[in-house]
Design goal:
It comes from Cyprinus carpio carpio. It is found in: Cell membrane. Its main location: membrane. The chain is mainly beta and about 775 residues long. Strands 36, 38, 41, 42 and 43 form a five-stranded mixed β-sheet that branches. Strand 15 and strand 16 form a beta hairpin. The N terminus is likely disordered.
């Protein structure tokens, strides 16, 4: 009841305030800025603005206000009409009195104001008494919405060891109530859970640290509950909460530490270089890159024998073998290992040092080892003319475990397939089994095996044997020379420059001397003293008809010890040249010599060509001698003319071999065409009459033609076999050809030929006579 009275009091105050918005009473004039007197039409509404409280809880419909027009004489002739937002649904008007009511509870957060229009209408005529006027219904807010955060749960992080007041996160809430009306939407933030570690600013919702130097290693995760309350936090206000999960982020404030001060490891002496000996690990309470460590060896008697590397995945220090170990030489090593953080935060250096050390003792265990050669590889040299059985060099191996064990030497024959070398199994002396040729192979690479007799353990070592050069090869021409001399050449003219090669390799380099074995009247050799020589003509005017080519022996000598020489023959061909010295033609014999073909080779080529020609001629002759069998074999000259088309049609299905339309339409046949299979006997043959128009069937057409020929006295006295192509495998009558009936000819009867008329008498006599002879 009190609420209703307050509501009406509020409406009364608002209505008093809205009097200022009432349009002037008719008959009263107002002045504009220019002082002109304006007159307005007689018109009057009581209000142009209305106000309602949202979420009205009274019974019945909520009264909004009353509309009244000066044209209403209250005689019941005026009807009020309401249009606009919510007219007829949210709001209704009494058409007689103009009273407006809200039909349901209104929510300002759903719609804050409604714009409507009202007009007065004559009930009888339906005409508007006044123009429609707009007015507004505003919904006043009440505190009916609690604050809401954007998220139910927030995730945040702050570095450990942060100072008090360090920013963590800002959370904000919103209130759907009207911020301009009272304190319904004025929010205040407070912390319900998370003290004394964190605090929140009441007005902004910013969360900050409340304690200094919080350590992640002690506690990493915190849960904070923040409340937002409207009505400026006063009693009776609505509130909402959210949860903030805060994680302390790691910083490098914890140094690495070894759990033990001394570590004991062991490894066999046979461990290879780079093989792991063992692992040690220091622990760091930090995480991520702040926990990354680096291991190193500070000192110790094993510093030269071992190395340590850091496993980036497990953050362990892996100790590996740096040099080959020997149990007989040293059995125990000691190392001082240090671990250090990779990323050091300078802000926390006072918490250090961020490193630690530990002692690592490594014990070497004994292993039965194979023999060990005195060198990792051997290189020997031997002359190429050394006789078989000569010593090349000696290899040496020992048993590292004991001095008394004997070692046997052998050569791996897979590396000496030609068996050029041998080795003494007791002392390791390598000797030659055959003579060596440097020009064949300059180096020989073999493997020598040393085997321990007691345990059969083996070790191999590579042996490289270099064959030293000995001057045992004479120089010779560097290439094959094609030398020409022109018939019109002059004396002293250069015709060829020659050079030489030697497979030997003297220490001071090659030096060749060129000369002629005898004095030659035609050519001479001039040594250029640079391992080349020039061939010059001694005379001019050569004649290729008298001598087509000359052989010039050239002696080539080297300067090594012992001196080697050889004689190489240079072939000089005589050719016809033009005035500029360009070769035009040479003799046939010279051309044959240049091509490298002997007389025997030319004869063999000619014989092959002749044999191929004979085969071709014989094949052609055999093809021309093939005989064709006659279609009809007869001893009598019956003067029968058989026309063979070498094929038959496909019956009615064959549309390629003939035009079936011609047979079905006899009128289109050209009757003037002469027979092409015989010579015509008269110039103007007998003109046959065309079949009647109704004979469109092929069978009737053929029977008509047969009747005409049987009754034609001028028909020639011979038989003609014609193919009408109205038969074949595709026809219902199948093939009528006798070409494939040779095998069954004896089973046929030819009596019906005598009934075909005089035209077939000769044919009937021939076949019936043959049948009677066959029966006899």
């Amino acid at each position: 009841m009190i609420i209703n009275q307050l509501t009406f009091l509020l409406l009364f105050c608002l209505l008093g305030w809205s009097d200022a918005l009432i349009r002037p009473v008719p008959g009263i004039s107002t002045s504009d800025r220019d002082g002109q007197i304006l007159q307005r039409t007689k018109r009057g509404w009581m209000w142009n603005s209305f106000f309602l409280l949202e979420e009205w809880t009274g019974t019945g419909k909520q009264y909004v206000g009353k509309l009244h027009s000066d044209m209403d004489k209250e005689d019941g002739s005026v009807k009020y009409v309401l249009t606009g937002d919510g007219a007829g649904t949210v709001f209704e008007i009494d058409e007689n009195s103009g009273d407006m009511h809200a039909t349901r509870r209104l929510d300002r957060e759903e719609k804050a104001l409604y714009t409507l229009s009202a007009k007065a209408v004559n009930k009888t005529s339906g005409q508007d008494l006044e123009k429609a006027s707009e007015f507004i219904i505003k919904i006043h807010d009440i505190n009916d919405n609690e604050p809401k955060f954007a998220k139910d749960t927030y995730m945040a992080g702050v570095s450990e060891m942060s100072n008090v007041g360090a920013f963590v996160i800002r959370v904000t809430a919103t209130d759907a109530d009207d911020e301009a009306y009272g304190n319904s939407a004025k929010l205040v933030y407070s912390i319900l859970q998370g003290q004394p570690y964190f605090s929140v600013e009441p007005e902004t919702g910013v969360i900050r640290t409340a304690l200094p130097n919080m350590i992640r290693e002690n506690r990493e995760h915190y849960q904070v509950v923040i409340q937002a309350k409207d009505m400026a936090g006063q009693m009776g206000g609505l509130s909402g909460t959210t949860t903030v999960n805060i994680t302390l982020l790691d910083v490098n404030n914890s140094p690495p530490r070894f759990p033990h001060s001394t570590y004991h490891l062991s490894t066999p002496e046979s461990a290879g270089i780079g093989s792991p000996v063992g692992r040690i690990k220091a622990y760091d309470a930090d995480v991520g890159e702040n926990a990354e460590m680096w291991y190193s060896i500070l000192d110790g008697d094993g510093q030269d024998m071992f190395n340590i590397i850091t496993d980036s995945t497990s953050q362990e220090g892996v100790i590996t073998v740096k040099k080959q170990l020997d149990y007989e030489s040293k059995r125990l090593y000691s190392l001082r290992v240090q671990v250090t953080n990779t990323h050091i935060d300078r802000r926390f250096e006072q918490l250090g040092p961020f490193s630690d050390t530990a002692i690592v003792r490594i014990t070497i265990t004994d292993v039965d080892e194979p023999p060990v050669f005195s060198r990792a590889l051997y290189i020997f040299e031997v002359d190429e003319d050394t006789p078989a059985g000569s010593s090349v060099g000696t290899v040496s191996a020992r048993d590292p475990d004991t001095i008394n064990h004997l070692v046997k030497y052998t050569i791996d024959r897979h590396t000496d397939l030609e068996r050029l070398f041998n080795i003494d199994s007791n002392n390791g002396t390598i000797s030659t089994l055959q003579g060596l040729d440097r020009e064949t192979s300059k180096w020989h690479n073999i493997s020598v095996l040393a085997t321990e007799l007691s345990t059969a353990l083996q070790t191999r070592v590579p042996v490289f044997i270099k064959v030293r050069d000995v001057n045992d090869n004479a120089p010779e021409f560097a290439m094959y020379y094609e030398t020409f001399v022109c018939e019109n050449v002059k004396a002293g003219q250069l015709i060829q420059t020659i050079s030489a090669v030697d497979t030997d390799e003297p220490l001071v380099g090659h030096k060749f001397v060129f000369s002629l074995s005898t004095i030659n009247p035609n050519f001479t050799v001039f040594d250029n003293e640079d391992n080349t020589a020039r061939i010059l003509t001694r005379r001019g005017s050569f004649n290729r008809r008298e001598m087509s080519s000359y052989l010039l022996p050239v002696v080539i000598s080297d300067n090594d010890y012992p001196i080697q020489s050889s004689t190489s023959t240079l072939t000089v061909r005589v050719c016809a040249c033009d005035s500029r010295g360009n070769v035009q033609t040479c003799s046939t014999e010279a051309l044959l010599l240049s091509a490298g073909l002997s007389t025997g080779a030319l004869v063999a080529i000619l014989l092959c060509i002749l044999i191929l020609l004979m085969i071709v001629v014989l094949f052609a002759a055999l093809r021309h001698q093939k005989k064709k069998e006659p279609l009809i074999i007869s001893k009598e000259d019956v003067r029968d003319n058989v026309v063979s088309y070498n094929d038959e049609g496909g019956g009615e299905e064959d549309t390629q071999a003939f035009d079936i339309g011609t047979l079905r339409n006899p009128e289109v046949i050209d009757t003037n065409k002469l027979r092409r299979d015989i010579m015509p006997e008269m110039l103007f043959p007998f003109r046959r009459t065309s079949p009647i128009k109704d004979n469109t069937d092929v069978r009737d057409f053929i029977n008509g033609r047969l009747h005409e020929n049987d009754s034609d006295p001028t028909a020639p006295p011979y038989d003609s076999l014609a193919t009408y192509a109205y038969e074949g495998n595709g026809s219902l009558a199948e093939s009528l050809s006798s070409l494939e009936s040779a095998a069954t000819e004896g089973d046929q009867e030819f009596e019906y030929l005598s009934h075909w008329g005089p035209q077939f008498k000769k044919l009937a006599d021939m076949y019936i006579g043959q049948e009677s002879q066959r029966e006899t």
